[in-house]
Amino acid sequence: MIPFNTIHTADCLDFMPQLPAASVHLIVADPPYFRVQLQQAWDNQWPDETEYLDWSLRWLREAMRLLVPGGLLYVFGQVGKREHVWLHLQSRACAEFAFHDLIIWDRAVGYNERRDSFTPAYEMILALRKDGAPPRFDKDAVREPYEAKTQALYLRDKRYKDPQARRAHLEKGKYATNVWRIASLKGASKEKLGHPTQKPLELIERLLLSSSRAGDLVFDPFCGSGTTLFAAQKYGRAYIGVEINAEFATLARRRLETYSNVLRCSK
Ligand SMILES: C[S@@+](CC[C@H](N)C(=O)[O-])C[C@H]1O[C@@H](n2cnc3c(N)ncnc32)[C@H](O)[C@@H]1O
After folding, report:
1. Which of 22, 89, 204, 211 has the most crowded CB, counting CB atoms within 10 A?
2. Is there an atom of ligand 1 within 6 Å of 245 CB?
3. Is the pTM of this model over 0.90?
4. Which CATH class is domain 6-136+178-266?
5. Which residues contact 101 (CB under 8 A, 6 or more apart)?
């Protein structure tokens, strides 16, 4: 049995068969995009789209095997000049597995200059569901605050008979939509650790808090700098991460160790 709270330097396709079926509550996967990061060997491993798509389906099948019934698998897809490959991937994944949601992540700043079309500024996050139980999803865990202006307006509205109940409702905040505006990490960002495609913690936290509970096991097959695992540790979930590149795996391990040390010191 693979111990919890560990990060493994391995190819996720070799690693995943070691985990038992229906043992993971949530998977956050941010896989290679296919020839978007042109300087990174890990994004240029496939001779053509067909091989990339076949490989994608292989790891997706293995990942879905690991999920408990009702568990969710989030898959990032990249904006950029090859996004049609991502559309094919979504289509093939949804033909085989239960579609749950499609989140639009508005990165706030455009990704790349294109001279012949609008500048791409969003990524999609596809959510697939393991059937057999109600989805492990808690909409209340990720409510967003109402703006003060909106709160004041609702409280003045005479149609609401019970102002106390109305205030309590407003204080809970509103349900989050599936369009998220969260700035992508810039080179100078304090959060940035040296991985070229590190995801903002705020974004991953939203996936984690809505789709897992304390004590759950969270798995990331392409953990990079360890953002998913960091969020899991922060919120009392167990984690297992895999990263093929030894330097990135070391980066992720250090990130998590530093956080545990901070927690120990603050106790
Ligand atoms: C898009 S990045 C993930 C970034 C991560 N979400 C973060 O916040 O830092 C994809 C990662 O997958 C790794 N990778 C590529 N092929 C892999 C494979 N077959 N098994 C495991 N990791 C792989 C790459 O080295 C890269 O670090």
Report:
1. 211
2. yes
3. yes
4. alpha beta
5. 126, 127, 178
